[in-house]
């Protein structure tokens, strides 16, 4: 890869989503699609937010242009797992969001028009209400923001693609991601 190349950075949780067999083959087919469109693929295993920050900083220092950032991690509308760390978002004052704040800081070095793909179950699902338990008291929160929305709100030009439903790994989600990029159904698209 030459410096200043456009790249897709695929971050895979070290202890998360398994990559083997047909799924592994599908990821490489998708990477080939990016490559055929002039976007060089880079894959990296991550275990925590510091790994993400380190990789993004190194690529930025080496003058790579991260056009796509692709997270391949387990998750739900309000969090995703990197292995050693869980990234939570704040829901009306509940939950520890320190790791999300660290993630937002790590992503701050991305270009203003980066496309972010969250290959993480239901990370783009819009939820009408959620029940939160805090100190043995249950609260009903209406219209909480999902993690994809929260990431999209960090920088006005970012486009965030995220599934609005759970993903069945091993069923060629990588090909579905091509659909995401070209705005086909079952995925939510967030930007400001």
Model description:
With 192 residues, the protein is of the alpha/beta class. Helix 1 packs parallel to helix 5 and helix 2 (49-61) packs parallel to helix 3 (98-107). The chain is globular. The strands form 3 sheets. A 6-stranded mixed beta sheet has the order 2-1-3-7-10-11. It is built from 5 helices and 11 strands. Strand 8 and strand 9 form a beta hairpin.
Briefly, what is this?
Helices cover 28% and strands 30% of the residues.
Number of E strands: 11
In terms of quaternary structure, the protein is single chain
| Mean pLDDT across residues | 77
Helix content: 25-40%
Strand order of the largest sheet: 2-1-3-7-10-11
Q: How big a fraction of the residues is strand?
A: 25-35%
- Report the uncertain regions: 182-187
Could you give the distance between the termini? Answer: 32 Å
Structural class: alpha/beta
Largest sheet: 6 strands, mixed
Radius of gyration from the alpha-carbon trace, in angstroms: 16 Å
Order of helices and strands: EHEHEEEEHEEEHEHE
Protein traits:
192 residues; alpha/beta; 6-stranded mixed sheet; 5 helices; 28% helix
Record the SSE blueprint.
Elements: E1 6-13, H1 21-36, E2 40-46, H2 49-61, E3 65-72, E4 74-76, E5 79-81, E6 86-88, H3 98-107, E7 115-119, E8 129-134, E9 137-142, H4 147-152, E10 159-163, H5 173-181, E11 187-190
Parallel strand pairs: 1-2, 1-3, 3-7, 7-10
Antiparallel strand pairs: 4-5, 5-6, 8-9, 10-11
Helix pairs in contact: 1-5, 2-3
């Amino acid at each position: 890869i030459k410096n200043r190349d456009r790249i897709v950075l695929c971050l895979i949780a070290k202890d998360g989503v398994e990559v083997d067999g047909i799924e592994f083959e599908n990821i490489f087919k998708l990477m080939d699609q990016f490559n055929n469109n002039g976007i060089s693929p880079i894959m990296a295993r991550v275990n925590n937010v510091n790994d993400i920050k380190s990789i993004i900083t190194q690529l930025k220092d080496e003058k790579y242009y991260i056009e796509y950032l692709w997270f391949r991690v387990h998750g739900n509308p309000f969090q995703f797992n990197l292995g050693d760390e869980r990234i939570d978002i704040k829901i009306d004052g509940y939950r520890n969001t320190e790791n999300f704040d660290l993630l937002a800081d790590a992503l701050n070095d991305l270009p203003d028009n980066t496309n972010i793909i969250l290959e993480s179950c239901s990370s783009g699902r819009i939820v009408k209400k959620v029940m939160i338990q805090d100190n043995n008291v249950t609260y009903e929160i209406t219209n909480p923001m999902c993690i994809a929305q929260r990431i999209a709100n960090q920088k006005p030009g970012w486009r965030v693609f995220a599934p609005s439903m759970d993903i069945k790994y091993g069923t060629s989600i990588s090909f579905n991601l091509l659909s995401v990029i070209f705005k086909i159904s079952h995925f939510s698209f967030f930007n400001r």
